[in-house]
Amino acid sequence: MTIKTAICIVGGGITGLTTALILKKLGFTVCIINKTGSAKELMSDGLFYAVSPASIKLLTECGLEKEILALGEDVVKMEIHSNDSTLNLDCKGTNEKILAKIVNHKKLQALLEKKVSQNDGIKKLDGFCEEITYEPKDDICRIKFRSKEKRTKNFLETKLLVIADGSNSHCRQKLQIPWGLKNYHQKAVVAKFNSRLAPCIARQWFFKDEVLALLPISHGKVSMVWSQDERKAERLLESQGALIEDGLVEILGRNIASKLELDSIPMAAPLTMISVGRYTQSRVILLGDAAHTVHPLAGLGLNMGFFDIIAFSRELESFKELSSVSFDPGHPKVLKAYSRNRSFRIRTTQALIDTIKYSFAIDRPSVNFFRSYGVNFVNHSDFLKRKIVNFATSEF
After folding, report:
1. Angle at 55 (CA atoms; ends 181, 382), nearest 5 degrees
2. In a domain, 17, yes or no
3. Residue 122 contacts residue 27 (beta carbons within 8 Å)
4. Where are the extended beta strands (E) located within 42-97?
5. pTM for the predicted model, two decimal places
6. What is the tens place of the pLDDT at every residue in 246-264?
7. 3-state DSSP helix/strand/coil percent for the chain, to nearest 5?
8. Could you count the other beta carbons within 10 Å of the beta carbon of residue 376?
9. Torsion of CA 357, 358, 361, 363, to 10 degrees
10. Which of 6, 116, 179, 199 could be bridged to 28 by S-S, CB 3.0 to 4.6 A?
């Protein structure tokens, strides 16, 4: 059997589903090929994202305006702690009402899946891509995939293949797209806590080479993301929470730690930064984690994938307006324009996050002094704080 579609998306996660809804809205026929059982799916109940205002606007364009507003907890203030200094950020003097919305992976995934299932113009297939080839003159991308249920081989022909199958992208490897991995030798330990802290405030602590964040997920509950050495993370997990309390007291202080009560089994995931040699090639585009990952200290991972979608949809719209009815979504000019738009921003953002991570990880008296001075200086400058908030809530 051969299926024909304008655009094929490999990956049925949040990035893939959002891409499908946006592309269908632009008038394209879309097919999703998805292989279930990813690491994110397995730990999705305890996984939360800080979704930026720009990303929220994208989700409302998918038809989720009411659902997304009711889905998560608003963040109206953020506290960043380093040594004895604190940076307080809020939306005063900006055009935004919130800094972010904390959303659960599983719930957002379910919302998007429901929206896709209600859309007749999007076909969803469970399967595994085995081979990707091109027809003469590269006019068509041909995909051979194996159906999960029937275990039969099928073919799909498309004008554009969107690769959104995650950081361990099978398609990226099949196409031999160059990529690199930077291992931080850390794990992010995530857990939920009952909390007596003030609501709607995201809190973050830089402690030596560790970063600990508390994200408000509902009234009286927070989600912890604690980036730390791999071996220490393993010991924390083995202790079944017994060592977490001591660690929280050391980093947060006894006053704040006493207001937290562990409410879930801690889980951990390795931290790496993935970069690719190119974001597009003939009839192919990489989006989301398949194209890039970053350290979670800035909460940008999912947002960067959303910004990929925003940038690509804008390129499609601009070229479609100049073209005929038979517009080709995989035209080289479209893909080159997207690559020019995103490559610099992605690499700059990755470098910036890396710089922040390593600058806060240095534990020397002289460095600590100047870092504390810098944080306090920024905290007393409304102008600089507005600049930081405007950057953090925009597209990049």
Report:
1. 95
2. yes
3. no
4. 48-51, 73-75, 77-82, 85-90
5. 0.91
6. 999 999 999 999 999 999 9
7. 40, 35, 25
8. 15
9. -150
10. 6
Give the β-pairing of 284-286 and 153-163.
parallel
Q: What ranges make up the beta strands (E) of the chain?
A: 2-10, 30-34, 48-51, 73-75, 77-82, 85-90, 100-104, 122-134, 141-147, 153-163, 179-195, 201-207, 210-218, 221-229, 260-262, 267-276, 280-281, 284-286
Per DSSP, what are the bridge partners of residue 8? 31, 161
For residues 55 and 345, the answer to whether their CB atoms sit within 8 Å is no
* Torsion region of 137: left, alpha or beta (phi above 0 gives left; psi -120 to 50 gives alpha): left
Total domain count, the chain: 1
Residue that has been written with the tokens 């995989």 in this structure: 330
Which residue range(s) make up the domain with 36? 2-47+108-180+273-359
| C-beta of residue 292 within 8 angstroms of C-beta of residue 367 | no
Residue 28 placed within a domain? yes
Q: Which amino acid is at 11?
A: G
Residue 200: inside a domain, yes or no?
Answer: no
User: Would strands 201-207 and 77-82 be described as parallel, antiparallel, or unpaired?
Assistant: parallel
pLDDT: which is higher, 271 or 358 = 271
Q: Is the pLDDT score of 143 beyond 90?
A: no
Q: Find tokens 């659960």 and name the residue.
A: 104
Cβ-based neighbours of 358, under 8 Å, separated by 6 or more: none
Does 375 reside within a domain?
A: no
